[in-house]
Amino acid sequence: MSFTLHPRLAAGSFELGELLGCRVLLKNNAIFPWILIVPQVEEGIEDLHELDPETYGDVVVVIREVSDFVASHFHPDKLNVACIGNQVRQMHIHVVGRTEDDPAWPGVVWSFEGKREYRASEVQSIRTAWEVFTDQ
């Protein structure tokens, strides 16, 4: 099976790595600690219930790992985890750290129009932290 990351996901994020058949991406919006998990599955599989049991199990493990990373690195008040895909149909899961003082609180981040792109040094710092976290 060949896998191609959706151009919109690729353009709006930075690669952090790969874990259990999933691409792990940092969304390029520094307002929120926001990581995308993109299972490398066949085109047309869009929702979690469509995964075979083994792949589903792997994706859940990755969701937990990414959630643990966001919680320990960014220290949010709350984690939001969702597999929405209304605009980009390629399966991807959002893991977003929220704080009570973020500009979208208590609303959703999905349609929040504010944005601040990451500086290269910030991306590198998060990549390094991710690498250290996943090497444990």
Automatic annotation (TrEMBL):
Classification via Gene3D superfamilies: HIT-like (3.30.428.10)
Organism of derivation: Luteolibacter flavescens
Residues in coiled coil: none
Protein's recorded name: HIT family protein
The organism's place on the tree of life at top rank: Bacteria
A matching Pfam family: HIT
Domain HIT: from-to ranges: 35-105
Transmembrane segments: none
